Amino acid sequence: MRQLILLTGVELKEYIREPGVLFWAIFFPILLALGLGLAFSGGGEMEKTVAIVCADTDCTFPYDLSEESKGKLLGNEKIGYTRYQFEKTSWDESILMLKKGMISMILKVDGEDIQYHFDPNNAEANYAYLQLSAAIKGEAPDPGNITVLEQAGTRYIDFLIPGLLAMGVMMSCMWGISYSNVDRRNKKLLRRMVATPMKKYNYVASQLVSRLMLSAIEVLLLVGITKWIFDISVTGSILAVVLLVIAGNVAFTGLAILIASRTANTQIANGLINLVVMPMMIMSGIYFSYHNFPDFMIAVIQFLPLTILADSIRTVFLEGATLINVLPQMISLFVFGLVSYGLGIRIYKWY
Amino acid sequence: MAEPIISVSGVKKYFGSTKAVDGIDLTIEKGEFVALLGPNGAGKTTLVEMIEGIQKPDKGEILINNLPWKGNETKLRKIIGISFQETYFIEKLTVWETLELFSGFYDLPRERSEAIIELIGLSEKRKTYTKHLSGGQRQKLALGIAFLNQPEVLLLDEPTTGLDPTARREIWEILKKLRKTYNTAMILTTHYMEEASYLCERIVIIDRGKVLARGTLDDLLSEYINGEKISFAVNMSLSNNGIPKPDSIINMNFSEDGLKGEIIVKDLVEYLPSFLQYIEEEKLTLTSLECRKMTLDDLFIAMTGRHLIEEK
């Protein structure tokens, strides 16, 4: 017991004394939540530049094209406002601006005729087309038949927070455990430690225990701060969230131990961690729904541990799921963790 | 004969075609200090790591307190103390916390860490993070950890390699002190012959995985080489024909131009006056002269044709 307490203490101290690690593991997810939450929660007006290419010198465009023009403000209080800035330029120049991402739409004006050049797959350009073309024709959406959904649980931030929570668990386990283990092996510190009567299981257990403690802090902070700012609350069982976070920690500690089991080279470890972490970050539906991926990929994505964790935390947060509802996911995370853990320990290189 | 605490018999360890350890026998008695002396790559570390239970021998047997490693890990870990060639610790842990961590592994009381920090002279660095320690201080901490459990066997792998002479001295003094306090046996690997002869009563010379010679320093020198060496340089060419008293000379060596030479003689005190007289008679002037006893390095050169510490 003394060994476990001491080793856990060491892990925690190492964390607390390394401000960089602490920042990435705890504060970064919170900042990310705040940043993304604010960016997607509307408010204020957006600005958009549109390139105007005229066929002749006296351009008959309905809005002011002069240098000092403030552009045109479109929209209403319900859908938000967008200020369109019009920049008169040549065709070649406008294509260049498009390539640089400065604009997403070019308007070619020839007498009364206006042609809209844009990529319809670009949602932003599509929206600009609909709004601008309607306005030029003198039509405007009626705010009377729009009702803004503001209830908690239906906004983007509600989708985002549970995912960030899950990702935070993954990141702190993968980087915290894998990296430090490989580094210690590289420096022959592991070898030094097992040359004492230290029990190996205490060493490995201390990693899980310390990670759980850090997770608790991270979850409390993230949930607390986002609740305060965005009024996000857990509609399902709090106990289920707690157990899911524990299950997630077991799953990713196991995976981290497995990844760190052989190599003594921190650069290789770096690559391995990225190899595992990056696809999950992108595909597991943290920032956007994975339902946009083709079906054959979804079939795989659904079985990624991060997907399982993020989805089940999300159902507890948003859909009021209880412990029973997420029990299968929880068990599969535990099993996944324990299997990788067992495998990792089996091939773990102490010397 | 006293009871051996370590007995190594017929141990071999090959890495592919490299014969790291190629049939070594060694016994160490309780309380005995033994040096494994040899150049880099001689197989010292592999041998020590096998005794430490970190590597398994391909052939042969290693017993500590009459117990093999297999099945006795827990018992043996408690009675040995180890320091590696170079030890790093958890960077953001202080000296004191590091000692406490390791002392916890052995389930020792707090007083033990206090005594150790005193012994290794790091009391003032108590609250320093290990990453801010100098090489010498880190090595002292590594030794401190090796002593924590008052081991019956200490296995130190090149404890002073890469340290400056002052730090090396300090570590020697710590080891001497330790020896007075506890009746511990020690195996120390080194490629410094001063270290071997200063700390250990028995020296085992190893090269290419084999024992070349073993015994006390005096034994080794008198058994394998004798005599004393005169190294000199002169202003004009000298031939070896006229050198006096050929009977007293064991061996001699001249450079091609005849301006430098080495003469190994049975008795320096008896020989030197006649040598100086000869130089005077030949109307030569000595530009340098050095006389010394033969050392382990000379012994090593005599045996292998190479120096213990390879020149860069």
Describe this structure in words.
The complex is a heterodimer of chains A (351) and B (312). Chain A has 351 residues and is of the alpha/beta class. Chain A has two domains: 230 residues, no CATH class; 102 residues, D-Maltodextrin-Binding Protein, domain 2 (3-Layer(aba) Sandwich). Helix content of chain A is 61%, strand content 10%. Chain A is elongated, with a radius of gyration of 26 Å. The mean pLDDT of chain A is 86. With 312 residues, chain B is α/β, with parallel strands linked by helices. Chain B has two domains: 166 residues, Rossmann fold (3-Layer(aba) Sandwich); 67 residues, 2-Layer Sandwich (Alpha-Beta Plaits). Chain B is built from ten helices and 13 strands. In chain B, helix 5 runs parallel beside helix 6. The radius of gyration of chain B is 24 Å and the shape is elongated. The mean pLDDT of chain B is 86.
Summarize it:
The complex is a heterodimer of chains A (351) and B (312). With 351 residues, chain A is of the alpha/beta class.
List the helices and strands and how they pair.
The complex is a heterodimer of chains A (351) and B (312).
Chain A: H1 2-16, H2 19-40, E1 45-54, E2 72-76, E3 80-88, H3 91-99, E4 105-110, E5 113-118, H4 123-136, H5 156-186, H6 189-194, H7 200-230, H8 238-259, H9 266-283, H10 295-301, H11 305-319, H12 323-347
Parallel strand pairs in A: 1-3, 1-4
Antiparallel strand pairs in A: 2-3, 4-5
Helix pairs in contact in A: 1-7, 2-5, 2-7, 5-7, 5-8, 5-9, 5-11, 7-8, 8-11, 8-12, 11-12
Chain B: E1 4-15, E2 18-29, E3 33-37, H1 44-51, E4 59-64, H2 73-79, E5 80-83, H3 95-105, H4 110-119, H5 135-147, E6 153-157, H6 165-181, E7 185-190, H7 193-199, E8 202-207, E9 210-215, H8 217-224, E10 228-234, E11 249-254, E12 260-265, H9 268-281, E13 286-293, H10 296-304
Parallel strand pairs in B: 3-7, 3-8, 5-6, 6-7
Antiparallel strand pairs in B: 1-2, 1-4, 8-9, 10-12, 10-13, 11-12
